[in-house]
Design a protein that fits this description.
- This protein has 342 residues and is mainly alpha-helical.
- The chain has one domain.
- Helix content is 68%, strand content 4%.
- It has 12 helices and 5 strands.
- Strands 1-4-5 form a 3-stranded antiparallel beta sheet.
- Helix 2 runs antiparallel to helix 12 and helix 5 crosses helix 12.
Length: 342
């Protein structure tokens, strides 16, 4: 009887040891820490605020007729009386003082065909260009030429003449067959897919804003340039009409004014007319160029805004991805810290 009781005690002790060892060898968890899972799922890409393209400033060209030229042209009507107005006499004296007789002849004999060619936008013939360059350099004669300013774009005068991300390191010491680690990796990958989609949506928003900004620019340039020829045609016509009237007044007075004065006055009228027409040619070409320069500047402003926004989108994405990478490591570590022992 005593022997049987001893055997029962040994059996109970053995069973207790087996149960203890089973509890000691409890396997690692199959899922990462749920709080960490919630934290990584809460990571998002911060939406960006779209940048407005910088404003492009422009100023139009201007041309102002010479006050002295206007005065002299108006005074030509008095020549038929045989009396030469003081303003006309002064102007004639300034011409003869600055130019040689040959240069006066060159200016006084300009043909209607040459005037028409220049009025159509053509360049001055070489000989005339040389004389007009000399006129522009003479302070007295330059007063009979128009003054003009070129158009500007963003303050500058316009002349005419015419994302891959680095790979993520594996957590050291984690076996790929570990179910918990695999679950942690799956959580991370799902979050990364979400972040990638958010980044793509932000980039699409930026691209759409850029497309909207540049969409009307080509039509704006076309509209800008389309009215320029008519504007300058009217200015040329007005200048030519004034010159034609002055020439008619000189011709009507030819018999009553000094013979030597006749070619000088004709030269003076052509100085005024050629100076005006060539200035208009320069401005017309500049205005057309300004339309194109404005389009270029607005496109560049839109591109700068786009690039700044894409950079901001990338930075926001990388910040979110870095946070997710760090949280992934914590998830992997949680698979070894939650349970088990030796």
């Amino acid at each position: 009887m005593k022997k049987r009781s001893s055997s029962l005690v040994v059996y109970v002790l053995a069973l207790t040891l087996v149960m203890y060892n089973c509890k000691k060898d409890e396997p690692f968890p199959t899922e990462p820490d749920s709080e960490l899972v919630d934290e990584i799922n809460a990571i998002t890409v911060t939406p960006i605020t779209l940048t407005q393209p910088a404003a492009v400033t422009t100023t139009p060209s201007t041309i102002t007729a010479s006050a002295k030229a206007t005065e002299v042209a108006g005074a030509m009507g008095s020549l038929s009386s045989g009396t030469v107005p003081a303003s006309v006499n002064t102007a004639a004296g300034e011409v003869t003082a600055a130019l040689t007789p040959a240069e006066v002849t060159t200016l006084s004999t300009v043909t209607p065909a040459t005037i028409a060619a220049v009025a159509a936008g053509g360049a001055l013939p070489a000989e005339l260009q040389t004389v007009m360059t000399k006129v522009a350099a003479d302070p007295a004669l330059a007063q009979y030429l128009p003054q003009f300013t070129l158009p500007t774009v963003n303050g500058a005068p316009v002349g005419g003449r015419s994302g891959a991300v680095e790979g993520i390191e594996e957590v050291e010491g984690v076996l790929v067959e570990d179910a918990c680690v695999q679950a942690a990796a799956a959580v991370y990958e799902a979050v990364k897919v979400k972040l990638d989609a958010a980044k793509a949506a932000e980039d699409a928003k930026v691209a759409a804003a850029y497309s909207a900004a540049i969409a009307p620019l080509a039509a704006e340039q076309t509209s800008c340039a389309s009215g320029i020829p008519a504007k300058y045609a009217a200015l040329r016509a007005a200048g030519q009409a004034q010159a034609a009237q002055a020439m008619a007044d000189i011709d009507a007075a030819q018999a009553v004014i000094p013979a030597a004065l006749y070619p000088v006055l004709k030269a003076l009228v052509n100085i005024q007319l050629l100076g005006y027409l060539t200035s208009l040619n320069t401005l017309q070409a500049a205005d057309v160029a300004a339309c194109a320069a404005t389009l270029t500047a607005k496109t560049a402003a839109a591109a700068a805004a786009r690039d700044a926004d894409l950079a901001a989108s990338t930075a926001a994405y990388q910040t979110a991805l870095a946070a997710a990478q760090a949280k992934r490591i914590e998830l992997g570590e949680s698979c070894h810290n939650q349970g088990g022992g030796n």
